[in-house]
Specification:
Layout lengths: L1 H6 L3 E5 L7 H14 L3 E5 L2 H14 L6 E6 L8 E5 L9 H5 L5 E2 L6 E2 L9 H5 L5 E5 L4 H11 L3 E5 L5 H14 L3 E6 L6 H12 L7 E6 L10 H16 L5 E5 L6 H7 L6 E4 L1 H5 L2 H4 L8 H17 L2
Parallel strand pairs: 1-2, 1-12, 2-3, 3-8, 8-9, 9-10, 10-11, 11-12
Antiparallel strand pairs: 4-7, 5-6
Helix pairs in contact: 2-3, 2-13, 6-7, 9-10
């Protein structure tokens, strides 16, 4: 059971990306990291993505003690944002294409364009565009329409990104999730908008009608910022986890947002004892060159190299 690995504090969660709907990439990521020892996978709320993850598990030959989580958000949550490029303002300077961690931006005759299924909403392209040609929009879904078929497909957790300021909207969507799914729920939350007291009050309100330890709090430091492997990058993630852990709530705590191979080491130095670590940007980055190869599944040398890289990361967080 998922609760067993959380209780044992041996959870490694691979975040494929709440906005990542590239089924080929998801299948390969799940295949590789499952073989490397990852036991928890975070996916977009897209039934084809969930099926791709299941194919990855089957191909890996390791399906026991492997668990799937589907993430959803609301307007204002960067995890469900998508970028779009105004071709009238784009000068094809290519800064956005070079900065995109997902290789979601492609060349066109007139301007670059965004492949929406690959975009994870990190906003780096918008930040580095000097021509104001890029904007972000929220890609919301109807939870009551999209989630029931996914739940029927078979998942182990639903995660809700409760990052925005609007308490009413957050609690309204949270109630919908509770009504749709009776299993483990996860709350992803950070300090980009909310202060420490607001975060704790919100989490307490969200879990007050739930049984003890049926909820995960994914303590996000700086969402989608884990491109580098150093203590500074993961510092905010550990600090956010400390806030939740010190509150002594009946929840499991996962460290996320800027996480890397240094995360658990730093957490232990701070005398923290999380249930596990969730890694997205960094975990995807270090294997990207392998999984993008056309011969990924057929080239044993490439598979062995990729597996070694993935195993080293998983082992650093267990």
């Amino acid at each position: 059971m998922l609760s067993n690995i959380l209780q044992a504090k041996k959870c490694f969660k691979l975040v494929c990306g709440a906005g990542n709907e590239d089924i080929d990439e998801v299948e390969k990521l799940v295949y590789l990291y499952s073989k490397a020892g990852c036991n928890f996978f975070d996916l977009s709320a897209n039934i084809d993505v969930v099926r791709a993850a299941k194919r990855g598990l089957e191909l890996s030959g390791v399906t026991e003690n492997r668990y799937l989580c589907v993430s959803v958000g609301i307007a204002g949550d960067p995890h469900i944002n998508k970028a779009e490029i105004n071709d009238k303002l784009c000068t094809k300077c290519d800064k956005c294409r070079k900065m995109c961690p997902q290789n979601a931006i492609f060349e066109d005759i007139r301007s670059n364009y965004v492949k929406s299924k690959r975009c994870i909403g990190c906003g780096r392209c918008e930040k580095f565009c000097t021509n104001n040609a890029i904007s972000m929009y929220s890609k919301e879904i109807d939870l009551e329409e999209v989630l029931p078929p996914i739940i029927s497909e078979g998942i182990d957790c639903l995660e809700f990104h409760a990052l925005v300021e609007d308490d009413y909207e957050v609690m309204n969507k949270w109630q919908v999730l509770n009504s749709l799914y009776s299993g483990m729920l996860s709350i992803c939350i950070d300090r980009s908008i909310l202060g420490n007291m607001k975060i704790l009050n919100r989490v307490k309100e969200m879990i007050k009608n739930r049984n003890p330890y049926t909820t995960i709090v994914q303590a996000d430091g700086a969402p989608m910022s884990g491109g580098e492997d150093n203590y500074k990058t993961t510092l905010q993630a550990v600090a956010m986890a400390e806030i939740i852990e010190n509150a002594d709530l009946p929840v499991y705590v996962l460290i996320s947002g800027g996480t890397n191979s240094k995360t658990l080491e730093l957490a232990k130095m701070c005398d923290l004892h999380p249930s596990g670590v969730a890694i997205g940007s960094y975990a995807r980055k270090i294997v990207r060159n392998y999984i993008q190869r056309a011969d990924f599944y057929k080239n044993q040398q490439i598979l062995d190299e990729a597996l070694s890289v993935a195993k080293n990361l998983v082992n650093s967080c267990m």
